[in-house]
Request: fold
Amino acid sequence: MPAVDVFSIREIKELAAKPKEQVVLIFGSRGNKIKVLCGKSCGQSWAIIPPINRIIKFIKQEQICFEEALVVHNHPTLPWHGEIIPSEEDIIVTEFFKWQLALLGINLLDHIIISGSKKQSLLEIDLYNKGSLNLNGFEIKRFLYCFLVQAAYVAPHNWTLSLVIEALEKNLDRIRGYYERPYFIRIFNKKPVDNQFKTELLKFKTTDKLINKLIDFLILLEDDKSIRIEPGKIIPYGIELQRKIITSAEYKIEKKIED
Reply:
């Protein structure tokens, strides 16, 4: 994405004067194409990051494979000292959105907060981490489930993905009662083992290589084992998914697997 003065974008100018917090997304692609996603005249912009299914619809609509993105949102008022101070929620939402976009092959460059004529980059004050993150298998599966449900709602997909989502939902229902408890409580409880989940995944077969890679990844995950995930390793798979969305590649519907 080329260097952009955010205030040169009409939607951002309108956003700066809004009386409520709202969000505008700026997407960039090869050829320096820039597209802006927001509600009509920013009047319907999101108070928080938009759901991933809305972004998928936008990708489909524009027929562009986006590579980078910027988040811009406003703080309608400033504290007494007149400086923009990112909230804890601003920081958490940025991290969450970074991984959602990575699953679509998009690199989140920064989150910029504006107020009137002022702006503040989270990246410049070290409140946006573009690097890796340590998560356990349960946390990764929970995040993937939320993403896949939204993606499957708007994007063409084959029957196997529906089976994977269903199996993932059942698995999370079986183990969430343990992993969502505080650690000091978990140490006095027996760790749940759901062998049924991996057994089900081993049955799923598809002609879609991307879904097969997802299945292999889920099988290898250990619920209580922490692993380091990096955007750079996820983005290539996201690019492949984004291309499928753009080209409307028809997934061959597999026959339902018999018990």
User: Anything to note?
Assistant: Residues 250-259 have pLDDT under 50 and may be disordered. The chain has two domains: 6-129, 134-247. DSSP finds nine helices and seven strands in the chain. The two ends are 49 Å apart (CA to CA).
